[in-house]
Design goal:
Layout: H1 2-12, E1 48-52, E2 64-68, H2 69-76, H3 80-94
Antiparallel strand pairs: 1-2
């Protein structure tokens, strides 16, 4: 994850000052609660993924967290407003 983050940061012109000590992989995704599982073969919804909390700040200390690949896909492909609208729809459609 760290090597890929450094490569992405360089290509995008983003800051990257994190080390292995800054990348803490929890047992479960803090957003979706999925049990995280690493695989060298391919990425899955349960794969751990390094997330930039505020994307424009880059991979810097205090701005990264490990979440599931599924949560990161959802986060990076949606605006905050879209995610709120989606969550509100789920609440209204299926109840709390």
């Amino acid at each position: 994850m760290l090597q890929r983050a450094r490569r992405r940061a360089k290509l995008a012109g983003l800051a990257c000052n994190i080390s292995e000590a800054d990348v803490v992989i929890p047992e479960y995704c803090p957003i979706l609660g999925l049990k995280l599982a690493s695989s060298r073969k391919r990425l899955t919804a349960n794969s751990p993924s390094l997330d930039r909390i505020i994307p424009k700040l880059g991979y810097v200390v205090g701005n990264v967290q490990v979440i599931s690949m599924k949560a990161n896909w959802m986060k990076c492909n949606s605006t905050p407003e879209e995610l709120i609208r989606f969550a509100n729809w789920v609440r209204d459609e299926y109840g709390t």
